Amino acid sequence: MTSEERLPDFYGRYVFDDRVQRQRLPKSVYKALRQTIESGSPLSPDVAETVAAAMKDWALEHGATHYCHWFQPMTGFTAEKHDSFLKPTSDGGALMEFSGRALSQGEPDASSFPSGGLRATFEARGYTAWDPTSPAFIRRSAEGSTLTIPTAFCSWTGEALDKKTPLLRSCQAVSASAVRMLHLLGVTQASRVTSNAGAEQEYFLIDAELYAERPDLMASGRTLFGARPYKGQEFDDHYFGRISQRVLRYMRELEHELWLLGIPVRTRHNEVAPTQFELAPEYQSITVSADQNMLTMDLMQEVAERHGLRCLLHCKPYANLNGSGKHVNWSLSDDLGHNLFDPGSTPQDNRVFMVFLTAILRGVDQHQDLLRAAIASAGNDHRLGANEAPPAILSVFVGAQLEEVVNSIIERRAPEAMGGERLKLGVTALPDLPRDISDRNRTSPFAFTGNKFEFRAVSSDQSIAYPATFLNLIMAESLDRLADAIEQRGGPSVENIQAVVRESLEAHRRILFSGDNYSQAWRDEAATRGLLNRPSTPEALQDWCSEANIALYERHGVFTASEAVSRSHVEHEIYCAKINVEAIATRDIAMTMILPAAMEHQKRLAESIVALSQADPQADTSAQREVLALSTRAITELKHAVDALLHAQAAVEASDEDPIHKAPRYRDEILPAMVQIREHADLLERLVDDALWPLPKYREMLDVH
Ligand code: ADP
Ligand code: MG
Questions:
Q1: Cα(396) to centroid(ligand 1), Å
Q2: How far, in Å, from the CA of 387 to the mean position of ligand 1?
Q3: Which ligand sits nearest to residue 199's alpha carbon?
Q4: Fold that domain 170-559 belongs to in CATH
Q5: What is the pLDDT of residues 172-214, one digit of tens each?
Q6: 333 close to ligand 1 (CB < 6 Angstrom)
Q7: What CATH code is assigned to 574-701?
Q8: What is the value of pTM for the model shown?
Q9: Half-sphere CA count of 668, side-chain side, radius 13 A
């Protein structure tokens, strides 16, 4: 990396962004492309042809030899199929070619990706379609460079097979509903509303050599064994602490790579757990953010390897330490430049803010099941509710001042001023709120932070696509329901708007909570309020395709019924597969690494007792005998636990139930058997000679100096 270059000179160098488009495209083509990007109007083949030619020239100048359609199948990862620009000529030579058609559409086939049964009923072939709203970029590597084109992935009948398409659809849905509401509220010049997101990304770093000795980390992304380290996070000394030189070197190179790709990463710091860190980019439109976050996660891992490190994105790599989350900061803005969650200072702004606030509170309360489903995964089950992580119960934190405003509206009184002076609650709803009044309740899964909401229960390794899709969807639905109610009352008079806001706030007030979300008291309180508490993935996914939810998806064009069913299927399948891999790794490591080490230790103890007694029949061997007895018991119990897991796995695997029915069995039969094994193994780790222990220990892994 060339550190002498100034950031403005190289920022976005490898992105075919607005600047490059304006420079390189004929004016009319540039205009047509912007029109498509901004309003979703279809792109003509002629325009695609010209864009492709310009893109190719630009890519060749940057050394690209291939292009690829880059997509996000339902695996939760990204996928790509490369084609070279090569076009053989009839005289034995070669040209570099890239047509409008090749830009617009790809046929990766890709029939092995999960389709949740969708393609059994249709055809195996999948298609990729260029998504012009997210700029193409160049992925460089020592092995050459590739022009990478963000695409949507679908079947030939147009059923979405990826996570991007529903997100794009949800953006359209929320825009339509938000514009309808804005018009109703008198903001008639607004014609489009954009959903924005900034994803704060947490991660762990580990030395690559230690990683290579942990087959559990390699197979499943988390440690399946490991006694707690002497020192964990109890001193809060890592959180925002000084960043070590080695880690800084990593962060600097990573940032440089991200900046070259126009990813506006700004923040970096140490997180709570030892060897845990965070980075955050500036927010962007939500589809760009979603793509850039996928790319960021890729680069985080790639750059780590160059530094003899590994980047762990799993949301719970170490038991008993904080897991990693991805805080999705989300807001809506109109094409007049207003952030619709900005409390603002004029009554007009306030009215819009109050209605949009009401809509999201209604949405979260009404659709707790969907937000919970959006973040459900085998990994996140270990995080939600544990340590510092948000619980599996959804609630919203808006800060004391805003909560008082909500209460005062419901109770038809003027709000108490928080800072002495009385707040004015005008007819048009809301007082002028100072920024940053929200005292940042870090325990809340969904918090208002000044002019945006922060969805914190998202897991560090997941794509933000589903959380974003469901946020947009529930917002679209709520705005429509509120707009209907205002219209049914006879139109948008101040009284009617206030009445609808009041009614809705009253109905959904229970979703507001500003106390400690990690406390048992909250769990009890949430139960009395009737809020959903779905601690595990199989429960969290149970309403994914309920009749009501399918109607909701279809109303807003986000999923068809068969898409919804297939996705639920895929999520269950992934859940089962993840636990199955972990179970196999647990068994294998216990049998082939831990037991042999423990038995060697046992043998040495037995031999030493014999040798000592032979040397001196009076020798005191009680210490050896005690450790031997403890070790022997742990070894026997570990072996029994392995047998029990084997047995459980055989039973689950033998059944021909579908993943939806198997998932609870993995949770109830396999996971507890794994926990049993770990308990005995972790005890052995504390008994067996350190020199014999086959796995790097927590205390070693949690240090990357
Ligand atoms: P925090 O105190 O939570 O760290 P920051 O101001 O650092 O808050 O923002 C965290 C993330 O939120 C960043 O990605 C930032 O760009 C993003 N963000 C800020 N404003 C908005 C907004 N209006 N909409 C969406 N994301 C936003
Ligand atoms: Mg934050």
A1: 17
A2: 24
A3: 1
A4: Creatine Kinase; Chain A, domain 2 (3.30.590)
A5: 999 999 999 999 999 999 999 999 999 999 999 999 999 999 9
A6: no
A7: 1.20.120.1560
A8: 0.94
A9: 9
